[in-house]
Write a structure and sequence with these properties.
The protein is of the alpha/beta class and 385 residues long. The chain is built from 13 helices and 17 strands. The chain is globular, with a radius of gyration of 21 Å.
Length: 385
């Protein structure tokens, strides 16, 4: 099917909520993609920080093939082993409490919001300026960006935003606060790590007031920062975290994970999801977690991420570079969205822009040093013209 035909189908039948780039990808392997004409691309986007284990990792493919041949869906009214095993793996590898499985990052944040309201009925929420927590109504209410919120007001009440300053955060958290929701690294805002001092201020204020500290690890989880979970690279342990994106090896999944001391404020019937924790998706997530939690891979994410960031700083027109592991943002002199389009067409390089002058690099974690060097060579050509 030609790209022209796909674009015609989109124009006729698809709500225009995405600005797609003019490429149809038909195959992926590791950090590489191929389009319908056989052209090879180097992927620095990983499906927006999703394909952490790489495209079509053999272990993920094998797990899915085996499971899909046995059982696809029965609902959460019955037991299936992959879902129970995944919940146990998530809890034991992180905060040690309970897990609610769902289908996306936004759904995980919705679950976290409901959990916090169950923890402190009628309580309020504190989020950081520049945050992005999703596009469903609760998650959108926690996303203090006027251009995203404005068309859909009135929003869920009880949310306030504060700048990432320790004193401001501490002052905003009161006995009325149900939860503080923070991304350890703000991804959609341009890859901005939140200073440990801010996280520590939130932690201490939550301890005093009884509010929950929840980390949105939708992007920072599943090995992305060089630790299995982003909070492990900070000085703070949250009461709960939300994960998604890289968890499923490319399959749609999300989870809310609590600390042992919190357990589950939910009661039976408080929350649910028809498809959540289904056997195929859970099998994929278990296989992907096995790949990205390997110590050698995590060490490479840290070292290669640092090397890539240092090399980016030396490229022409690069004004600032920040991030952790293989979650890196770079501010440039020029038009970032235009450069992304040129990268795709001229250099077969897949990446994206989070703002008019900001590039985001979240490649598959299995990307090789040679592939990162190739990416730097291609970027240097693009930035020099």
């Amino acid at each position: 099917m030609s790209l022209d035909h796909l674009q015609a189908l989109e124009a006729a039948s698809v709500m225009p909520t995405y600005k797609r780039m003019p490429v149809e990808f038909v195959k992926g392997e590791g950090a590489l993609l191929w389009d319908d004409e056989g052209r090879e691309y180097l992927d620095l986007l990983a499906g927006i920080a999703v394909d952490n284990a790489g495209h079509c990792h053999p272990a993920v493919v094998a797990a899915v093939r085996e499971q899909v041949g046995k059982l696809v869906h029965v609902s959460n009214l019955f037991y299936t082993a992959p879902g129970m095993e995944l919940a146990d793996r998530l809890a034991s590898s992180s905060l040690g409490g309970k897990v609610f499985l769902c289908n996306s990052g936004a759904e995980a944040n919705e679950a976290a919001i409901k959990m916090a309201r169950r923890h402190r009925p009628g309580g309020e929420f504190v989020v950081l300026e520049g945050a992005f927590h999703g596009r469903t109504m609760g998650a959108l209410s926690a996303t203090p960006q006027a251009e995203k919120q404005g068309p859909f007001e009135p929003l869920v009440p009880g949310f306030s935003s504060v700048c990432a300053d320790p004193d401001a955060v501490r002052a905003a958290i009161t006995d009325r606060t149900a939860a503080v929701l923070i991304e350890p690294i703000q991804g959609e805002a341009g890859v901005h790590p939140i200073p440990d001092a801010v996280l520590e201020a939130a932690r201490s204020a939550c301890d005093v007031t009884g509010a929950l500290l929840i980390f949105d690890e939708v992007q920072t989880g599943s090995g992305r920062t060089g630790n299995l979970w982003g909070y492990e690279g900070t000085t703070v342990v949250p009461d709960a975290m939300t994960v998604a994106k890289g968890l499923g090896g490319g399959f749609p999944i999300g989870a809310l994970v609590t600390a042992e001391k919190i357990g589950s404020p939910f009661l039976a019937g408080d929350h649910g999801s028809t498809f959540a924790g289904g056997p195929v998706v859970a099998a994929a997530a278990l296989a992907s977690l096995e790949v990205v939690s390997e110590p050698g891979l995590l060490a490479a994410v840290r070292s290669e991420g640092a090397r890539f960031a240092a090399s980016l700083r030396e490229l022409p027109g690069v004004k600032a570079v920040r991030g952790r592991g293989l979650m890196i943002g770079a501010d440039i002199d020029g038009d970032a969205p235009a450069l992304v389009m040129r990268a795709l067409a001229d250099e077969a390089l897949v990446m994206n822009a989070t703002g008019p002058h900001t590039l985001r690099f979240v490649p598959p974690l299995v990307i090789s040093p040679a592939q990162l060097d190739s990416a730097l060579t291609r970027l240097a050509r693009l930035l020099a013209t």
